[in-house]
Amino acid sequence: MGKNPTAQEVIVYMESLQNEEQRQVLMRFFKTGPGEYGEGDEFLGLKVPQTREVVKSVAKDFSLSEVPELLMSRWHEVRLCGLLILVAKFEKLATKRLESDEAAIRSRDEILTMYLQYAEQVNNWDLVDLSVHKILGHWLLLPTRFGNGSKDYKLSLLDSLAQSDNLWKQRMSMVCSWKTSQMGDPSWCLRYAEIHLHHPHDLMHKAVGWMLREMGKRISMDLLRDFLRQHAHEMPRTALRYAIEQMSEQERQYWMSP
Hints:
Oligomer: single chain
Order of helices and strands: HHHHHHHHHHHHHHHH
Structural class: mainly alpha
Mean pLDDT: 96
Distance between the termini: 59 Å
Largest sheet: none
Number of helices: 16
Low-confidence stretches: none
Shape: globular
Radius of gyration: 19 Å
């Protein structure tokens, strides 16, 4: 691919890497059968490092206006490629030096808008988990021109994802707190862990437990213990098991006991 590649050129190149054996493996792994959470998703059979290589070679010169065509692709890996291009562009605009730069703020807001506009294309757990904390999660702790930059605006935006009837948007509202915890703010994780505590889907139980574990590890195990003292008795077992993974065997047994 030459300089300033188009979405079409990227798609054609990725299709040329198709691997039937790997495709079958991925379709089973991501539960694409009837009635499963990834029903109907189509794969080329590329491994994530292959997609990352494509992103690395094109992201710098790839026009933001071309990204939607990747996000609308039938191919899972092409959608991932589009998401990772957005991540690469966002991260370049979110360095310490550019945090409060007016042009960077507006460009970050534009990337976030595109990400949320195509959120329904982020339709499997890996697509969410490889992108949401690096775009939405990071944006939460950066200056924005939306809603006068208020935390209330950011909360209402996340609440609308959490209250959506779309599993992947709900997962976004939880997994974006991976970044906020890395950056030292536990409030997002604690709020959305509580909101999703009684979610019916196993994929959300895992997300809640995982984010609580990360918050405990990054910020404070005592904060995690406070949350568990309030909620361990009502947490799904999967969420609880994930949340306490970093603890000693003795403490894990304590929390898991009925």
